[in-house]
Amino acid sequence: MHPVDAALQQARQLLGNLTPPELTPPAYGGQVSTPTDWTGTAAERAGTVHTELDTNREDLRATHKRAATAVASANRLSEEARTGLTAVETSWQQDKAILGPLADTPTGQAALLQAGQLRITEAAQLIEQTATQYATIAEQLAASSAELPHSVENPTATQAVDFKTDKPDTEGPPDKRSMPIITEPGGLGPPGTIGSAGTPNWIEIGQDTGIWLPDNELDGLYVTEPGGLGPSSPYGTPGWVELLPDSGYWLPKDQLPDNAIYQTPGSLGPPGTMGSATTPDWVEWIPGSGIWLPDDKLRSP
């Protein structure tokens, strides 16, 4: 199976194909009247309880109405997402049909690769947008459930189910990144670290590059065939950045500082920052990567 077909198949699995549920309005019954000839303390308390129950019943009815609206929005969103993905899949099949006769030429291979990357990006953006919209709907449901009546003894008795994605829980990126250790390409890595207690192991970024980083700062590292397509961005994830061009070593973008700047590899760094009094100096984290970090986010290895 072509890698693009596999990525689109994964996207289809994430969206699913189940028929969405419909909420049926519950029957709450009518108000209960207190007998007119009933008097005294018990009658007064019963009247108070009846009033509270009537209020709670109206709150439940209003909450259910809001929940039904949210579920209907989620159902519509699900259908729109599947329709959008079908359009991406159709476009990819057309790309293959048009470029297939040229697949044995360098130009054709490059064009097909570019088309595949575009379709993967479209699918990833569609799923990420859908996940964000689902999260918004889940927050609306949680806010509605928070308004439901509860007892003083158990104030959180009624809760909406938390919205979860398939994105793994992580502690986020390190506060600072280590500068790489540079050795002779094809030579041994940093000495005295492999298996040493209290020190990180080291990973060479690419084959025979001589550029080494500590593995405890590469959470989520994904290795692919050098020069090939990067990993697809599944449900809710923010995308990937290749640590060196054509190395096949990819890191999730959310494992890098939010203010990281990504330039074309081999180009000049961010303009107007070197030596500025109010902005940090910028350092290319890995030589030739095009990944620039403020120097206050870097440390010596």
Automatic annotation (TrEMBL):
- Under which name does UniProt file this protein? NLP/P60 protein
Region (Disordered) residue ranges read 154-190
- Compositional bias, Basic and acidic residues, is annotated for 163-178
Name the source organism. Answer: Mycolicibacterium gilvum (strain PYR-GCK)
Sorted keywords for this record are: Plasmid
Top-level taxon? Bacteria
